[in-house]
Each structure stands twice: as structure tokens, then as C-alpha cells.
Amino acid sequence: MTVTKLYSELADWWPLMSAPADYAEEAAFYFDTMGKAVSSPIETMLELGAGGGNNAFHMKHRVKSLVLTDLSDGMLAHSRSINAECEHHVGDMRTVRLNSEFDAVFVHDAVSYMTSEADLAQAIATAFVHCKPGGVALFAPDHVRENFTPGTDCGGHDGVTRALRYLEWSWDPDPNDTVCTTDYTYVLRESDGTIKVVHDRHIEGLYPRDTWLRLFRKAGFEPRVVAFDHSELEPGSYELFVCVKPG
After folding, report:
1. What is the pLDDT of residues 106-136, one digit of tens each?
2. How far apart are CA 216 and CA 2, in angstroms?
């Protein structure tokens, strides 16, 4: 798994790429969807691949305990600054083991960086071993093969002294393999007005729906597909996987 510039040398710029306020609607949908899948209230939660903690910023108020892990300590530094009350661990979602079980395990778009079935199976196994019997895991990949469409997006934010804008371009160089490409161009403006332009290529896993469901079942989960309902997205364009661990 390649470490991209955004999560390593450019991690310091993350808050200007993506702000917590951008995540309020989707974080509520994720948490509500997990809550509907189980019979008991969700009180403890683990997020694998938490990044800068923007989803956690909204979810932490709905649980008694929220533990966050990510491969990038630079990204977790941002999460610590906005989620100081949460426990943080640097760890790879394929191999991290905390020796604890949680009512819910949340895996956002970081799961998209699992570029082989073996990597994806390991991440799913991590979620399974950290999920309590009768608990739920939710996986939110950027795409599945059936609903992938090439596209572009843009955004960014102004800070107190610096600013960032980005262009995002997702495409699939080879429809016969299990990866797609998202190219980012970042325009970084320093406090003195200096501009730097950086290209960053992200290679992401792109698997058919049946592959996801097969790997969930192999791990021991009982999975189902849920359409992602968001005001900024076309209905049916994204989907989530909600997985219950048998009690």
C-alpha cells in the first residue's frame, strides 16, 4: 500500500483540504445506519483509518468511548487536536490489534487503499476481531465496481494564513483489474503569497460487490448492502456495507 503525499509530507495541510463541518451529514448517516443494525445501543466504537478525525468529531458525542487508529501519525495529530477526549493509536488497519472489542467498528474511505483482495481480507479480519458478538461494522469504500464512474471534483479551504485548493480526477486505466486511479492537484498558498502546485496519485481498490460480500462472509460477518443517502449525491451512486457479527 503506497503512502500518498497527502497523508505524509502534506499532512500538515489536511485541515485546509477537508474540514469537520464538511462531514456532519454523512457522519450522522453512518452512525444511524449502524445503530439500526443492532438491538443494543452503541456505546463503544473503534474507527479504523480515522485520518484527521472529521467523522469522529461528530460521532464522539453519541458514544461513551471512541478509539481511533490510522497509519499516519501526521493525520492523527490533526484528530488529536479536535478529538482530544478520544484514544488514538498509530496502526495499519490490516494488522493493528488492540485486544479490545467494541459495539461498533467504523471503516470509512481509507479502506479504499486496500489494493489487493489479501489486503482487504486482512482489514475485514481486523474489524471482525475488534467487533463484539452481536455488534456491527460499517465499511464505506469510495466505489464498488458496479457503480464506479469517472469524474472530477474540487474544493479546499482558507486558513488564517494559508490556503489550499484541489482538483480531484478519478478514472480507471484498466477496467479488467481491481484498482482505479484518483489524481489530485493541490494548489498550496503560503502566508507570503507563494504558490506551490503538487500532483498526488492515489491508487485505490475497486472490487465487485460480490467480492466484498464474499470476504465479509468468509471473515464471519453477516453483511448487507445499504444505499448511501446524502444530499450532495445522486441516489444509488454510492453504497455501504453493514456487517453484523453473530452473537
Report:
1. 999 999 999 999 999 999 999 999 999 999 9
2. 24
Same domain membership, residue 157 and residue 138: no
Write the Ramachandran bin of 30: left for phi over 0, alpha for psi from -120 to 50, otherwise beta.
alpha
Question: What is the residue whose three cell numbers read 479490545?
Answer: 100
- Domain contains 4: no
Are residues 101 and 41 in contact, defined by beta-carbon separation less than 8 angstroms?
no
Please state the φ and ψ torsions of residue 141, each to the nearest 5 degrees.
-70, 160
H or E segment to which residue 155 belongs: strand 151-155
Paired with 183 in beta bridges are 169, 201
The CATH number given to whatever domain includes residue 134 is 3.40.50.150
* Strand pairing category for 65-70 and 179-189: unpaired
SS percent in the chain: helix, strand, coil, step 5? 30, 30, 35
Based on the domain organization, do 155 and 79 belong to the same domain? Answer: no
Grid cell, residue 127, equals: 474489524
Same domain, 135 and 164: no
What is the number of other CB atoms lying within 10 angstroms of the CB of residue 14?
A: 22
Predicted TM-score (pTM) of this structure? 0.96
Residues 29, 101, single domain; the answer is: yes
Quick one: cell of 191?
Answer: 502566508
